[in-house]
Amino acid sequence: QGQEKLSCNPKKENGTHVVLCELGNPMKAGAQITVDMELSVSRLEDIGEAITFHLQLRSKNSPSSSNASVTVTVPVEAEAEMQLRGWHWVEGSQRPEDHGIKVEHVYELHNKGPGIVSGVTLSIAVPHLLGDHVLLYLLELGTEGGMNCSHHPALNPAQV
């Protein structure tokens, strides 16, 4: 006839998480009720492909072992909409800010000794394209401390 909000209490029973909801007392013989349940389950990352709920209706007044039960299996699906956003290229511009936000990488190479080293080569690969789109626009490459540097031909191709 009317709608009532149930009082439910979570507890653990034999290593299983149980939620016990009291439907009311007393109920008339032959009474029919409908219960809509909304369950929120967190930390499903390692649960697998589905989660199973065992629902059982018990009566405190009935010593019968034929309490009605049902098993409900709900598939677990993860959905995410992802976007990789870059910078809108301003064609023909000579201003660096029109080609993206400045990102500076600094690499330091130290000899921790005790011996002296020579002829050391440090190779750094920087992805500048993602498919046909510019991911990083490489402006300049510099060194300090008497090192020689060679660079890829994609360095500042628009002469910004």
TrEMBL record:
Annotated signal sequence range: none
Keywords: Glycoprotein, Integrin, Membrane
UniProt-recorded name of the protein: ITA2B protein
GO CC, alphabetical: external side of plasma membrane; integrin complex
Domain Integrin alpha second immunoglobulin-like: 3-76
Cellular compartments annotated: Membrane
Lineage: Eukaryota, Metazoa, Chordata, Craniata, Vertebrata
Molecular function GO terms recorded: integrin binding
Originating species: Cinclus mexicanus (American dipper)
UniProt key word Protein transport: no
